[in-house]
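Escalated from tier 1: heme C holo job.
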Amino acid sequence: LILRAFLLPLLGMLIAGPANGADGESQFKKLCGGCHKADGTGVPGFGPPLKDGLKPMLETGGGTSYVAYVLIGGLSGPIESMGKRYSGVMPSFAAQSDETLLAVLTHVVGTLNGFTPPDASALASARADKPTPKANHDRREKLLGAGA
Ligand code: HEC
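Tier 2 regenerated the structure:
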């Protein structure tokens, strides 16, 4: 009886995991994998690699906020990433909750690139600034210019 009443529901909760969907890797696969590939290695000529591809920006120190800005505002205009040219449009994900976006940021910045992920304040600044895709392109150029 004790087993049924307490242990089985507890076990069920453990197996189901967090119900809020904040798991960064699964959110990444769902929201970003179509264009950047499920493992983040990118689709040549279409979606740039996010695994290792963000290191040049992250190494400048301003890169974690850049990634938050791209998630909120999107990105357009030609870029070069890991030696290949891309010229597509990255859509805005501002409609997603901060919880979901932070989980994705932690996966992208932390797991895929090995840098310290941003906290909620980076998302708050990006939301307050309402960056355009073009402004984010300028932001990227400026970061890389400063890092060179
Ligand atoms: C509909 C396709 C699409 C989806 C979905 C998408 N992206 Fe993108 N993303 C792009 C494209 C295309 C670019 C490059 C835009 C350009 O050439 O200016 C890009 C660029 C980026 C960049 C900047 C890369 C760099 O080198 O500066 C980041 C960061 C990024 N995406 C993260 C994400 C994350 C995280 C998700 C999921 C929440 C996501 N993207 C979902 C298409 C997409």
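The radius of gyration is 18 Å.
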